[in-house]
Specification:
Layout lengths: L2 H9 L5 E4 L10 H10 L3 E6 L12 E4 L10 H4 L1 H9 L3 H10 L2 E7 L5 H11 L10 E5 L4 H18 L2 E2 L3 H6 L6
Parallel strand pairs: 1-2, 2-3, 3-4, 4-5, 5-6
Helix pairs in contact: 1-2
Length: 183
């Protein structure tokens, strides 16, 4: 689709919010031009990013940062050379800080086990205090692709969120549609 076709299709919906996501939207050809055109239409733009690429002034009302934790790196047996590339680029605190200093942000982690908490705390400490960014802007989302797995993790995760001042983020798309592409 051309940028014009995308903008026309998006604005055909009666919805004031748009989310630019996808893998990593910041590497998409034309993403900056798309954001400019959507903003010109008066839309609220959220960008979901792994926060490994500098924002460089992209139009954005809310940046939803999803830094990858250490357990996201696939084994070399699973992913070959991609494993080392992922590990080398998955964690960029200087880029996370740039996003936090430039935009209204939330940081969202896919959470699989309590042993991840020290890594999350280390990331928050390394990024440092940014005016306006508080712990309640950190969201923990349970890992899982079915309702049973998500519901089993929910009570423990909710307690950890309360204890650490984070927010619990349900996986609404799985609740509504199951583990399906395009949701």
């Amino acid at each position: 689709m051309t940028l014009e076709e995308i903008v026309r299709q998006v604005t055909a919906y009666d919805c004031p919010h748009v989310v630019l996501t996808g893998g990593e939207p910041m590497v998409a050809s034309g993403i900056r031009e798309l954001a400019v055109q959507l903003k010109a239409k008066g839309l609220h733009i959220t960008i979901e990013t792994a926060s490994t690429i500098l924002p460089e002034g992209i139009e954005c009302d809310l940046a939803s940062l999803s830094p990858k934790l250490a357990d996201s790196t696939p084994s070399e047996n699973q992913a070959g050379a991609w494993s080392a590339r992922h590990e080398a680029s998955r964690y960029r605190p200087e880029i996370i800080r740039q996003w936090l200093e430039s935009y209204d942000c939330q940081i969202k982690f896919v959470f699989s086990q309590p042993e991840q908490l020290p890594e999350i705390e280390e990331l928050l400490n390394e990024v440092g205090a940014v005016p306006g960014f508080t712990r309640d802007r950190v969201l923990l989302m349970p890992e899982g692709t079915d309702l049973k797995a998500l519901r089993e993790k929910a009570p423990v995760l909710a307690e950890l969120c309360i204890e650490h001042g984070f927010r619990y983020a349900p996986r609404l798309h799985i609740d509504l549609f199951g583990n399906t592409r395009g949701t």
